UniProtKB/TrEMBL annotation:
It comes from Podilymbus podiceps (Pied-billed grebe). PANTHER family: ES1 PROTEIN HOMOLOG, MITOCHONDRIAL, GLUTAMINE AMIDOTRANSFERASE LIKE CLASS 1 DOMAIN CONTAINING 3A-LIKE1-RELATED. InterPro entries: Class_I_gatase-like (IPR029062). Gene3D superfamilies: 3.40.50.880. This is GAL3A protein. SUPFAM superfamilies: Class I glutamine amidotransferase-like.
């Protein structure tokens, strides 16, 4: 019987929601791993709505759950309804929606607050010793909620211009967590906390390398589940 995995989204689109390629990659690798997946998102208003063609905010108002339903092909539930005892693991794809909608990292950095349902979900899986997978910017959720944990967002220096957001590693360290430098096609496993992370689009890399890195994260999550 396949592992039961909850996937938590933050909208639809890299600049104001979940990164579409990351969400899709996670779903493909979960499918390949024989997992039974259910998708969730918080029923809240987005912090902002970005015109992805122009890269600038608009005056629109959108709902995170409604937008996430685009990625879920309509098959999605309110995050408030997620019960950790019904799943073996949880995975959070990245995208700026994580830093805007699931928490306030985009505005407040290490001083951010985490959405109450996101926080309770993370706490529930952690307390039950069930694995948590995070990619791209979403490892900051674990860094904020679980001081002392180990995560990766890639490198802590902007090596060859490939890691333009390398300062995120320093902010994670300031939260009392350990940042582990990894390449884009790798993931890090914090065995003590059962937290698995990979940098994905925090690295400027070919799409197939990002896809493979997410694959290692999913595989490690399923091993721990």
């Amino acid at each position: 019987m396949g592992k039961r995995v909850a996937l938590v989204l933050a909208g639809c689109g890299v600049f104001d929601g979940s990164e579409i390629h990351e969400a899709s990659a996670a779903l493909v690798h979960l499918s390949r791993g024989g997992a039974e997946v259910k998708i969730f998102a918080p029923n809240i208003e987005q912090r902002d709505v970005v015109n992805h063609l122009k890269g600038s905010p608009t005056e629109e108002k959108r709902n995170v759950l409604v937008e996430s339903a685009r990625l879920a092909r309509g098959n999605i539930q309110d995050l408030a309804e997620l019960k950790a005892n019904e799943f073996d693991a949880v995975i959070f794809p990245g995208g700026f929606g994580v830093a805007k909608n699931l928490c306030s990292w985009a505005v407040d950095g290490k001083n951010c607050t985490v959405n109450e349902h996101v926080n309770s979900t993370l706490q529930a899986f952690h307390s039950a010793k069930k694995p948590i997978g995070l990619c791209c910017i979403s490892p900051v959720l674990a860094a904020k909620v679980f001081p002392g944990c180990e995560v990766t967002v890639g490198q802590d220096k902007n090596v060859d211009g490939r890691f333009p957001d390398a300062e995120t590693a320093s902010a994670i360290a300031e939260l009392g967590c350990k940042h582990i430098c990894k390449n884009v096609n790798e993931s890090h496993v914090d065995k003590a906390n059962k937290i698995v992370t990979t940098c994905a689009f925090m690295c400027k890399a070919p799409l197939h390398e990002i896809f493979d890195g997410i694959g290692t994260m999913v595989q490690e999550v399923l091993k721990l589940a």
